[in-house]
From TrEMBL:
Keywords: Cytoplasm, Hydrolase, Nuclease, Ribosome biogenesis
The protein's enzyme class: hydrolase
Protein purpose: Could be a nuclease involved in processing of the 5'-end of pre-16S rRNA.
Keyword Lipid metabolism on entry: no
Similarity comment: family membership: Belongs to the YqgF HJR family.
Keyword hit for Cytoplasm: yes
Signal peptide region: none
EC number annotated for this UniProt entry: 3.1.-.-
Domain of life, source organism: Bacteria
PANTHER family noted in UniProt: POLYNUCLEOTIDYL TRANSFERASE, RIBONUCLEASE H-LIKE SUPERFAMILY PROTEIN
Subcellular localization, as worded in the UniProt entry: Cytoplasm
This protein's GO CC annotations: cytosol
Protein name: Putative pre-16S rRNA nuclease
Lineage: Bacteria, Pseudomonadati, Campylobacterota, Epsilonproteobacteria, Campylobacterales
Length: 128
């Protein structure tokens, strides 16, 4: 099965894929100008890679997690896809991504950290 994961943020959407059931690779993040454009870009990405299941990072048990959960589920509702969608706790995935990459590249706001966070989310999901 071909999996993809997204880490939905207000400015960027981190993306990762797993095509063989074991190796998860971060992809170029989707820059978010508005939610409709971002949803179209995610749809295009999923179709291009022929993704069969989408894993969405969702903050659980965190301050302000209710508001982010609402925003993320609303964003997912904008996706025009007919594949299975599952949610995975994304607690601290961005912090972990920053720690993993410390000293490897400068932490700019280019989406690399977001996509590595998406990679972590998908790896957690696959280990369940």
């Amino acid at each position: 099965m071909k999996y993809a994961s997204i880490d939905v943020g207000l400015k960027r959407i981190g993306v990762a894929i797993c095509l063989d059931g074991s190796t998860v690779l971060p992809q170029v993040a989707i820059l978010r100008k508005n939610r409709n454009q971002a949803a179209r870009d995610v749809n295009t990405f999923l179709k291009e890679w022929e993704i069969e299941k989408l894993i969405v990072g969702l903050p659980l048990n965190a301050e302000s997690s209710e508001e982010m959960q609402r925003r993320i589920t609303h964003f997912v509702s904008l996706l025009k896809i007919e594949i299975e969608i599952d949610y995975q706790d994304e607690q601290s995935s961005s912090i972990e991504a920053k720690e993993l990459t410390k000293g490897i590249f400068r932490h700019k706001k280019d989406g690399k950290i977001d996509s590595i966070a998406a990679q972590i989310i998908l790896e957690r999901y696959l280990l369940k």
